[in-house]
Write a structure and sequence with these properties.
The protein is of the alpha+beta class. The chain has one domain (about 1-100). The protein has helices at about 1-40, 90-100, and strands at about 50-60, 60-70.
Amino acid sequence: MSKSISNIDWMNQLENVIREFVKEKLELIMKEEIQTFLEMEQEGTSNRRNGYYHRNLDTQYGRIEGLSVPRDRNGEFQTQLFAPYQRHTGWLEEASSGCIKVA
């Protein structure tokens, strides 16, 4: 029985590592997005970065807590990764629509 407990611990650690990796990559993508947004779309304006806000996002890899989403002073930046009030990625809808098939 102790072997199954260590397997569960190992799986939990693996899931945590995967979630942390996904979180880091999402934050990196959003940092690049806001940099491009400010350089290309806001050129010639006084708009600039204005810190981050934090949110949770449910993904196929589990819940990512405290995701740092960058913001700009004018409030015009919106990441392309998810909608403003979206709390889970589209995999949930895809999974549920795949289960219900109408003949």
